[in-house]
Amino acid sequence: MDFSWNVDKIEKLLLVDRSGSVMIQEIIRQGGLATDFNNVGLSELLITGCWYIWWQRRRVVHGEEIQIAPRAAMSIAAITTNYYLAPKASTYNKLLFSS
Predict the structure, then answer these.
(1) End-to-end Cα distance, the chain
(2) Residue 34 pairs with which residues in a beta bridge?
(3) At residue 67, what are phi and psi to the nearest 5 degrees?
């Protein structure tokens, strides 16, 4: 992933609105590929990361242990890559009902 490109985009977004939710919304809307993660969608990676952080927070609230940050980052990348590489339902239905 070309981080300088992303930093430039984030800096431009900060000129318009400093809200984190607006930046997330714009990153999701603009899309793109995370080339360091098998070209998975940047939107999918961001959404999975947000969900995973929520899940980790939920575990803390319930008194459970959570992963260290580097391991959590690897988990987010693995979940997103698995989702991206999984066959989609339409492909599965075509294979199932094509006989």
Answers:
(1) 42
(2) 40
(3) -80, 155
Which residues in 17-43 are b (16+ Cβ under 10 Å) and which e? eeeeeebbeebeeeebebeebeebbbb
Burial of 94 (0-12, 13-18, 19+ CB in 10 A): exposed
**Beta bridge pairs of residue 41:** 33
Each residue's pLDDT tens digit, 35-75: 777 778 888 888 999 999 999 999 999 999 999 999 999 99
Q: Give helix 42-61 / helix 20-30 axis angle, nearest 10°.
A: 140
Cβ-based neighbours of 31, under 8 Å, separated by 6 or more: 41, 42, 43
pTM: 0.69
- What amino acid is encoded at 75 in this protein? S
